[in-house]
Every structure is written in C-alpha cells, then in structure tokens.
Design goal:
alpha+beta; two-stranded antiparallel sheet; about 40% helix
C-alpha cells in the first residue's frame, strides 16, 4: 500500500517537473515568435520605404521631405492581422501596431499619403527589438524620416548633404510624439 502511494507521488512529481519545464519552453517560444514577427514587420516596412524612395528618385516628382512621417503600412498591400490602423487610444493592444497621426501644422498639407505621424508597437512579451530590450506594455515608436549622405559623420543634415532615401527611425515616445499625443487629448 505504501509502495503504491510512493510510486504515485513520484509520478506526480515527475509529471509536475516536466510540465513546469514544458511551460517554460513554451513561454520562450512565444517570446521568440513575437520578436520574429515584429522584426519581420519592420523589415517589410523598411523595404517598402526603400522602394517608395526609389520611385521618388526615378520620377523626380515630389521630395523625400514630403514623405516624412507617412504611414508605411499604407505602402504595403497586405492585410496585417496585428495592425489596428489609426491609434484609438494611447497605445495599441498587446502585440499590435497602430499609426498615431500627429498634430497638423500650417505648413503640413493633406497629401495622398494621408496624415503624418509615427508607428507605435506595444509588445505583449519581453522582447528585443532594434537592439532595445522592451518589457510588455512599454510601447515603441518609429517615424518615417529622410535618409541622407552624412559626409562629416555628425548625424545631422547640413545644406550640402543631399537626401538619399527614406528610412524608419526609432523615436522616443517621451519626445515630440508624446507632446503631440497630449495635445490631441
């Protein structure tokens, strides 16, 4: 009788340890999947911006500056399951993207590309994105900006440094993006 109970206890403990190990592996795989998904979305958006920049250069109509702040999701003909469109609140739901339209200024005109703003991604898992470790619920933001030939290497564009294309650059949500969000509320 005691031997049966002991075997049952040992079996339950072994199954418990295996279940604990399995849940840990499953959690790591969910994190990896979300990280890969976010990297894939960023890569596809960056490729779309390169193509759009090449179109602008080849057509010689319009300028890169006119495209700064556009929604890069509009450049890709794909039904994104984790893209919520224009942001309805402060941030999208966990694991999703949205486009936060910025405050209109007098020099900003309505274009065919839609409103100007920045992308926001709200991770649902602790992930590393653009070499930055992010906890769940801490949103990240990117903005379409002009890439330029930085000849002197100082990181700022001077008059003689010509634009070379479009890029998706990370922006802090505590800077201009946060001020514009507060102004819209």
């Amino acid at each position: 009788m005691f031997a049966r109970r002991f075997r049952l206890l040992v079996a339950v403990v072994i199954i418990g340890v295996l279940a604990w190990f399995l849940l840990d592996v499953l959690e790591r795989e969910v994190q990896r999947a979300e990280e890969r998904s976010a990297h894939m979305v960023l890569s596809q958006l960056r490729v779309a911006l390169v193509i759009r920049g090449a179109e602008v250069m080849l057509s010689r109509q319009g300028s890169f500056e006119d495209l700064e702040g556009i929604n890069p999701f509009a450049l890709v003909e794909h039904q994104w399951h984790n893209y919520e469109g224009l942001c309805a609140g402060e941030k999208p739901s966990a694991g999703n993207w949205c486009f936060q339209a910025g405050e209109r200024t007098s020099k900003q005109k309505e274009t065919a590309t839609g409103p100007k703003g920045w992308l926001i991604y709200n991770p649902g898992q602790p992930i590393t994105l653009d070499k930055q470790q992010v906890a769940p619920g801490e949103p990240l933001a990117w903005k379409v900006t002009t890439e330029f030939a930085d000849r002197n290497g100082n990181g700022t564009r001077e008059q003689e440094e010509r634009p070379t294309g479009l890029k998706l650059a990370p922006v802090p949500l505590t800077g201009e993006a946060a001020r514009t969000q507060d102004a819209q509320r």
